[in-house]
Write a structure and sequence with these properties.
Strand order of the largest sheet: 1-2
Oligomer: single chain
Radius of gyration: 30 Å
Helix content: 55-70%
Largest sheet: 2 strands, antiparallel
Length: 125
């Protein structure tokens, strides 16, 4: 039912773009509203089924799986996928990336810079 409504909407859209007529645009808008209505009712039906399943005792672990999935879907995708470690190997797992960054930052912050201990600033009183 949903696939049919979406397919009809796509056909009407192509027809409207090809003909560029007001009637074709009206037909497209009508089919677009219908597709939205069908999709919304299908989503609502699926949500009701999920809620009914979660009330059943054998689906208690599904609650935690769904919550974990929802949290994962809402995470930002700005993280780094892979880096090269100090040895030149490519690291892809999260723990390895964190350890590599930690090692790099410790080396960077604890490195001693050589200087000649001469201060060339004038003292003002």
């Amino acid at each position: 039912m949903v696939a049919e409504a979406v397919k009809e909407k796509k056909i009407k859209y192509r027809k409207w773009k090809k003909e560029n007529m007001k009637e074709a645009r009206k037909e497209y808008k009508k089919s677009r509203r219908n597709a939205k209505r069908v999709i919304c009712s299908a989503k609502e039906k699926k949500q009701k089924e999920c809620v009914n399943d979660l009330n059943d005792s054998e689906y208690q672990n599904e609650i935690f799986r769904m919550a974990k999935q929802m949290v994962k879907e809402r995470q930002d995708i700005t993280g780094i996928n892979c880096i090269k470690g100090a040895s030149g190997k490519v690291i892809v797992d999260d723990k390895g990336i964190r350890d590599s960054w930690k090692e790099y930052m410790e080396k960077l912050m604890n490195e001693e810079n050589e200087w000649d201990h001469k201060i060339s600033a004038e003292v003002k009183e």
